[in-house]
Amino acid sequence: MRVGMTIFCQNADDWDRYESEERGEEVTGRPAISDREVFLEEIELAKTADRLGFDTVWTVEHHFTPYTMVPNPLQLLTFIAGVTENVDVGTMVVVLPWHNPVRVAEDVNMIDTLLGDRRLILGVGRGLGRREFAGLNVDQNEARGRFDESLAILRELLSKGEIHDHKGEFYSIKDLRLRPQIERDLTDLLYCAAGSPETMEIIAKAGVKAMVIPNTDLETSRAGLQTYVDARHAAGFEPVDTRLAVWTYCAESEEAARGPAEQYMYGYADTALRHYELLGGHLGKIKGYEGYAARSEQMGQDASLFAKGFVGGHPWGTPEMIIERTRVLADTFGTSEITFVFKFGGMPLKMAQESMALFAREVLPAIKELDPRPLQPTAP
Length: 380
Description:
Number of helices: 14
Structural class: alpha/beta
Distance between the termini: 29 Å
Order of helices and strands: EHHEHEHEHHEEEHEHEHHHHEHH
Number of strands: 10
CATH architecture: Alpha-Beta Barrel
């Protein structure tokens, strides 16, 4: 099994200042830790992962808040590819409704052309953050339609390098060909974040592979993924691997790991709740987000459930604890690659580096030996 690491580029301790500024209150113009410093630290982690034998470095796309400050993941990964030698690179995810899909295909093809024997794994998604849709001047009620149409365009361009005639709700394309010309069908490296029942059904019927980036507890994510697997089977497709993202903290003893794991996983959960406004009650008013609205209502009854799901479900602790938990997750999700987030929720760089170094020595070799089979459809 392949093992990746993810750089988040969070300025997690800046939320109070950011939200005060958003409300129009007088605040200092800059955070205590500069955004530039956050990026430089994450770049160091990426270069360390390359030296330590990880297979992939991943990153995300988010806009405007301290949650994760990567407005252009393909640009960041191009830089990462230039300062590393061995790792593949991956997006988790490029949010398709925020982009022209032709430009996404061009950017992906450009990186693939330059990477040589290395690869770009392209995770795509629909997006959830209200601030982001508003700031990019995209009507969130159109997200479902924009995603579905963009995914179809992207798949055709990545498979053939050309589109002869596309007439859709948002895009009209006639006799378009990518340059540089693609060398091979790139759709095998295309995954989609399976974050809602609506998205799972769409990608299952299209034969697109699933990427699980938990925005709820892992048990709920697993149940949702089974829906995708069953829908994929019903559409006539064979079982296929998934990609899974998890959060981790590795220490020599469970006692040494528990305090940091709980502190920074709770810290991360707080940033996610604030960025996505998951307690705001607005998702039920946006077309196509009914599944998220139900989860938001559950969280509104107990906001700590989200953080408890991270601490209770994600692999942290001693190397032995992490190996065993990862083995269970790999089998449960039928994954071919698990990517680990090492720095999150305001964790200091030194602490993340120590965790990652121990992980690389004592966990990484064992996880690479795992070989889970793809998740199977429910028996009739």
